[in-house]
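Final paragraph of the annual report: two paired records, presented back to back.
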Amino acid sequence: MSAIPSALTYTGDSIPRPLTRRRYFVLREPAAEIERSTFIPKIISKPLNPGYGFKFAIFAGIHGDEEAGTLAAFDLIRWASEQPVELHDYELHIYPVCNPTGRRSHTRHSGSGVDLNRQFWHESTEPEIQYLEGELRREKYDGIISLHSDSDSDGVYGFVGGSFLSEHLLKPALQAASKILPRNDAHVIDGFLADKGIIREGYLGMLTAPPGQSASALEIVFETPSLAPMPLQVAATLAAVKTILARYRQLQSYAPNL
């Protein structure tokens, strides 16, 4: 497999236009008596017409040992840099490495030993959570897609929340991904009731839109089976995300006639 890109691959001046990069300070770690800065990178792909576009965020790597989502996020950044027609009306914010300390140590938890995906909207003092919550509050995304892997699953599946459109988008996304990896059709997945790979509940503290956000964002968590070959996990994730974006645009075009 090719070398894994570092968390800061896309934070330099070499980012191809029309992407812009942001590099936000998260925390400092004492390491061998030398402070080491840790950043959560954020890449923004602007719509063709400035100020107009569906505003979506893609979060990956919140568990440091789930590399498929991070690699898929970097592939999405490369795709966006090519200015594909599929993104002409999207403002896409990509956070490819949400848990840089966990990724560095290849662990699920952050460097402080915390599962970051159980900390949201509970007054967490974890700096990664405080930063990401601030982003979610400020940006008010129309859609939030979180990318994960599950070592106990033998197929792709996902969680839905927020807008009622979430389930309508996850269903075709799973169909697209299932051409690459099988769909998990178990009636119970990860302890939750599931229907053809779709779970309508979730864990407390999962990454979601801010409670009380005026316009309900669609929320989708896409999961790949982590024991599957990495290239297939990445390909399935890309197929799912691109299907979600395409179908969302399609549903929005229908809205005025509903």
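The closing record of the year follows.
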Amino acid sequence: MSSRIEQIIEEIEEYVDSCKYQPLSTTKIVVNKEEIEELLRELRLKTPDEIKRYQKIISNKDAILEDAQTKADALIADAQNKAQELVTQHEIMQKAYAQANETINAANRQAQEILDSATQDANSIRLSAITYTDDMMANIGSVLTQTLEDAGGKYKGFIDALQACMDVVNHNRQELAPQTAQAAAMSGSYQPADTEASKEDEALLDEIGDN
């Protein structure tokens, strides 16, 4: 919406355009003094009011711009503060993460050292147990071998003694066999010497000796 001053100026322009030129001139016109003065008078009267209105608008505009600038500055400052807080929090989080990672790594290293030490101790104990068991079994084996040798020697001596006795008995029976046969013939009840029994006894002694 145009102001009254702009309307008056347009009316003056239209009035000037409607005026006739002076004779023999293309630049000078003939105007009605009263009409043009009336328009100029109204223009002079309206000018202060329009200027005040424009000044008010300008003032309001400045106030609006100043308020907008203030709000913009406040928003920028708040954004900067929040950004700084985020940066600070990020740095704190980075430090916390670094400390947490260091703690975890240290714990892992310590746990691995404990496992390595336990494994080494277990291997050492296992080797010692195996060595002790082997030594103990070797001693038992030596004792058993010696015992078997001693028992075998004594058993062989016992078998040899029995065999000697058996040989004496058989020899004596063989010497008595003719006399026994003669006596049996005279009594009518002769039986051959129990040679088979002697052979069975000898076979039993041989089997015992082999075992």
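The mean pLDDT is 77. This concludes the annual technical report; the extension proposal builds directly on these records.
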